[in-house]
Specification:
Blueprint: E1 2-11, H1 18-27, E2 40-49, E3 57-66, H2 74-81, E4 90-95, H3 99-103, H4 105-113, E5 141-146, H5 153-163, H6 165-170, E6 173-176, H7 190-208
Parallel strand pairs: 1-3, 1-4, 4-5, 5-6
Antiparallel strand pairs: 2-3
């Protein structure tokens, strides 16, 4: 097994379900009693890079669940920036029932990718987001919407249409799921394929380094 020393941070506001998502990704189990993340928690997932090909290689992938404190103190954001130094993949997580959490993904992307710039605490919305600012970004991104189960069937099309532009803005694939139901990431499902592609890109970047 190849140890991958680099991380895949999950960035989002507190309460969107990052801890439940990480537990599902790494343990393939529902997290029974999720709690607030303080600082950063780390879990490990085994990933078969380019599975089924001559290039197949097994990696341990570290998933760093970075606490999403909404505090504006510069010290809080500076502390978070420490976790962005050795990364080769970013999962941006938002709560499908909370429009503000999807808007905040623009700020999180700027904070993580532009980590050499002192954080400002300014809330960035899609209207202020300049796609060209990170046109040369080589770090793969994945957008995951959580709490799909909490949206009434009659409202789902409306909500998913509203959030669909996120994937385009971030040049990333999008997964929407219910973290209390492992079937959303079942082997062979479209979500599982997207997830595997993302981890392949992140593993390739690490392998190239």
């Amino acid at each position: 097994l190849a140890w991958s020393p680099r991380s895949r941070p999950l960035c989002a506001l507190a309460g969107v379900g990052k801890s439940s998502l990480v537990h599902l990704l790494c343990q393939n189990q529902v997290l029974g009693n999720p709690s607030w993340t303080v600082g950063c928690s780390v879990d490990v997932r085994i990933h078969d890079y380019k599975e089924g090909t001559p290039e197949e290689k097994t990696y341990y992938i570290e998933l760093w669940d970075v606490g999403g404190s909404v505090g504006s103190a510069t010290s809080v954001k500076s502390t978070r920036a420490v976790f962005y130094n050795l990364l080769n993949g970013i999962i941006l997580v938002h709560d499908l029932t909370n429009k503000k959490s999807s808007q905040n993904l623009y700020r999180w992307s700027l904070e993580a990718l532009n980590r050499d710039v002192a954080p400002t605490g300014v809330l960035v919305t899609n209207g202020d987001y300049d796609r060209e600012q990170f046109a040369d970004n080589q770090i793969p991104l994945l957008v995951i919407g959580t709490k799909l189960d909490q949206i009434p069937e009659t409202k789902r099309n409306e909500v998913l249409t509203r959030t669909a532009f996120l994937a385009e803005d971030f040049n990333a694939e999008e997964i929407n799921l219910d973290c209390t139901n492992p079937r959303y990431l079942a082997a062979g499902s479209s979500n599982a394929v997207k997830l595997s592609r993302f981890f392949d890109k992140a593993s390739h970047l690490n392998y190239a380094l």
